[in-house]
Predict the structure.
Amino acid sequence: MRLALLGPPGAGKGTQAARICEAFGLPHLSSGDLLRAEKLKNTPSGKRIRDYIDSGRFVPDDLMISIMRSKLVSVVRQGFVLDGFPRTLSQAESLTEMLASLESPLTGVINLAVAPEVLTRRFEGRRVCPVCLSVYHVDLMPPQREGICDHDGAALVIRPDDMPAVVRTRIETYHYTISPLLEYYRKARLLWDVDASGSVETVWSAIEAHLLEIGR
């Protein structure tokens, strides 16, 4: 399977992508993780990325496409789950062309839909490990020890792009750009909408049932 997960910040793309990858043995390509890793390198590209991420704006299409292309080429034959990419119509069109050249088109696109007020509540409790980048929530998905990563014992932090003012910008930017992208995939008969307002388990059950059906 070759899948893309769409949804606003806080919709649970990373959590559900990890579930899909574990269940079906697929590589997980998270645009956010890739960008944050690049940001930490302190290269010219990293510094450019930092300015966009820390202010809640989208990274320009040319830079995002270049980063994703380098990763996709190495995993495309295995299948994959794209998490947070594409985010604009231009990125979607480039992805279609890229995968067509590799003779590996998308199997489907899952759109995780969540109301803005639900997203705001989710961000208030989100915490991240600065070492392994694992994501937690103080209420919905807490670590075993309060404030400590389960995997490496690092103290959990609030990411700069999860601060309230930045979150508002991220959500507004997402809703401004998403409509053409959703229409693009609806016309291609690839889009499947999932209500992601419920619990992690409820959302996963719906996704798993759908993927098992299309995988038959």
About this structure: Helices lie at 13-24, 31-40, 44-54, 61-75, 89-101, 116-124, 164-187, 200-214. The CA atoms of residues 51 and 57 lie 8 Å apart. The radius of gyration is 17 Å. The chain has a mean pLDDT of 88.
